[in-house]
Specification:
By secondary structure, the protein is an all-alpha fold. 83% of the residues lie in helices and 0% in strands. The chain is built from 4 helices and no strands.
Amino acid sequence: MPEMRTVRQFLAFTGVGAVGTAGHYLTLILLVEALQWDPVLSTSLGFVVGALINYILNYKYTFSSNKSHHETLFRFLLVAVFGALINSGIMYLGTTLWSVNYLLTQIVATGVVLIQNFTLNKLWTFAEREGLS
């Protein structure tokens, strides 16, 4: 059943994402709290850390891709850049314009980017070509 495969992949994606998100949040909190960096810049750097973790784990475990890294990494990075822009935009709105706590804002941003990233990675980055076994 294709629906069950999608559910399994989404659950694996969120599990892998939890590891990547931990790297993202750890970087964010360290830079904001210990180094007093701007939350928007800090979340952008944290996003890069999380994206690298996510690519490696999603390639191998979530989508069990047999595509070349050349093809999937390029696509994954495009999806990640799009997600990073959404993430940074939400962080800017929340922390700068609306003065919401940076961690609460990041939680909202993470939820939005999770759905966007899963959808694009499933349908484009790691999608199997039709007619190939």
